Amino acid sequence: MKKQEKQKKREDDQRWTLADRLGAETEAKLLAKKRALAEEEQRRRAAEEARRREEARRREEQKSFAELLEESALDWRKFK
Fold first, then answer.
1. Is 23 in contact with 31 (CB distance < 8 Å)?
2. What is the tens place of the pLDDT at every residue in 24-35?
């Protein structure tokens, strides 16, 4: 008999979800925190991407004539 009671109690415990155990207020706080962290991560990624683009633009501006000529796909032999 005790075994059946323990098994029934386990089944009842398994039916509870995390939201049921924590309560609505705590669940709402956790969801808000999750959203805030996701937004912060998105802002961080956008800032990092902007920094990379700016750095690439600066490097492009600072290239010497020799570097630009070396990167060029033009071949002077064709225009001879």
1. no
2. 888 889 999 999
